[in-house]
């Protein structure tokens, strides 16, 4: 079986497999485009035209490349407006590596109605797993573009039964293909439960990124996840409207002070193009320049980390070494 990441050291991107050592500086959670389920029903505001989105996304990538970024993971799940052919065109035009995902989003904002309806006629976990495995090993839709990772998600304060089904399906797919898993959490909650459920289902902890862990300053929560072997995603820099960057920097510096740099990846969770209009223009205009800016970490956060006593070597580990190690499936060495 062709797997999402293999012992040969190759990794699926939207333009085909590359050597894991070709990743270079890598941001591990950015979005080319997002479309919340139902966006296609808004015929008044369908969102920008394809050529407009391509221009916006090309500009974002060129800005990232000017800071030395060579690759990114776009963990958009199947039910959030994913368009892998668009990403492939973008990647080919810019020479920038994009890894796409298979998976499903949290119950509150994902594609539950379809799976709920389907579940009335039989179990859905195996069907979800079959979908994930096909997209990891054969291709997405009618394309031969293969995902390189599985995306799962849970909401704030609880993992619902539907989200447990997705986690179980992700574990089945990961065990069958060797693909790693990245997660969405809200407000720094439920990462420990995600980790517990996935590990209990046979997924090695080091093949899991607990995403948006920077949504809390709870140091014990962070260390508990790290001690059990998973990676933390400090991957929402710039989204102060959700949680302030000042707290993210303090929390990250505290972990790096204890030499946990080998298990942390960084990013912004930026969204460059929206299907429909989930954020009205008047609102987005007041959000400031840092939100959804994929160069913010390099321009503003790295100087703050250096001023807080973090070394350039530790920053390089998070940006270069950890994505390679994670996709290679190699367990990090704890401090």
From TrEMBL:
<dbReference type="Pfam" id="PF02126">
    <property type="entry name" value="PTE"/>
</dbReference>
<dbReference type="InterPro" id="IPR017947">
    <property type="entry name" value="AryldialkylPase_Zn-BS"/>
</dbReference>
<keyword id="KW-0378">Hydrolase</keyword>
<feature type="modified residue" description="N6-carboxylysine">
    <location>
        <position position="151"/>
    </location>
</feature>
<dbReference type="InterPro" id="IPR001559">
    <property type="entry name" value="Phosphotriesterase"/>
</dbReference>
<keyword id="KW-0479">Metal-binding</keyword>
<protein>
    <submittedName>
        <fullName>Phosphotriesterase</fullName>
    </submittedName>
</protein>
<comment type="similarity">
    <text>Belongs to the metallo-dependent hydrolases superfamily. Phosphotriesterase family.</text>
</comment>
<dbReference type="InterPro" id="IPR032466">
    <property type="entry name" value="Metal_Hydrolase"/>
</dbReference>
């Amino acid at each position: 079986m062709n797997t999402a990441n293999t012992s040969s050291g190759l990794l699926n991107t939207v333009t085909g497999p590359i050597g894991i050592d070709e990743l270079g500086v890598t941001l591990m959670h950015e979005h080319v485009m997002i479309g919340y389920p139902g966006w296609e029903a808004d015929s008044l505001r369908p969102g920008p035209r394809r050529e407009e989105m391509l221009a916006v996304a090309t500009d974002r990538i060129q800005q990232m490349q000017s800071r030395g970024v060579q690759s990114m993971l776009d963990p958009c799940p199947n039910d959030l407006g994913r368009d892998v052919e668009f990403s492939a065109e973008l990647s080919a035009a810019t020479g920038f590596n994009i890894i796409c995902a298979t998976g499903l989003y949290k119950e509150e904002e994902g594609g539950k109605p379809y799976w709920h309806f389907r579940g009335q006629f039989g179990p859905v976990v195996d069907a979800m797993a079959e979908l994930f495995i096909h997209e990891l090993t054969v291709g997405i839709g009618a394309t031969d573009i293969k995902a390189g990772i599985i995306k799962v998600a849970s909401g704030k304060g609880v993992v619902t039964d539907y989200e447990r089904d997705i986690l179980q399906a992700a574990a089945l797919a990961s065990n069958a293909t060797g693909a790693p898993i990245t997660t969405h959490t809200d407000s720094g909650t439920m990462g420990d439960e995600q980790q517990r459920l996935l590990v209990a289902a046979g997924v090695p902890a080091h093949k899991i990124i607990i995403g948006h862990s920077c949504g809390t300053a709870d140091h014990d929560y962070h260390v508990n996840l790290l001690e059990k072997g998973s990676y933390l995603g400090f991957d929402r820099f710039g989204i102060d409207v959700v949680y302030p960057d000042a707290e993210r920097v303090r929390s990250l510096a505290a972990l790096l002070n204890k030499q946990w740099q080998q298990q942390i990846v960084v990013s912004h969770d930026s969204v460059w193009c929206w299907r429909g209009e989930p954020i009205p223009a008047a609102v987005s205009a007041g959000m400031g320049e840092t939100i959804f800016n994929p160069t913010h970490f390099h321009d503003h956060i790295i100087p703050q980390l250096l001023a807080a006593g973090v070394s350039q070597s530790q920053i390089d580990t998070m940006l270069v070494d950890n994505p390679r190690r994670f996709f290679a499936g190699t367990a990090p060495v704890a401090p």
